[in-house]
Write the structure tokens for this entry.
Amino acid sequence: MDKRLNEIALHHGLDAQLDQTIEECSELILAIQKYKRYGNKDDGFDTYYLAQVGEEIVDVEIMIKQLKILIEGFDFETFENGKIVRELGRMKEAKP
Ligand SMILES: [Mg+2]
């Protein structure tokens, strides 16, 4: 974990970083919507809109990393593993 994120997270605190996460998630949603609407058309806009999505993904990732610092005592790794295993199971069941 980047120690700079630890410093930022602890400076702002959970409540402020939850608000910021909402904002960054909203920006990611809008960037994806714009890419789906205006990008993906072979006219050069693909790269522009996809870069916007990439930038917002980074913003959201930074916020998620901070929330993982600030939300203590939650076993993120175990839950992540469980959800991946569950989805792989669903995919296996769905195969003809
Ligand atoms: Mg952003």
Summary: The CA atoms of residues 29 and 53 lie 9 Å apart.
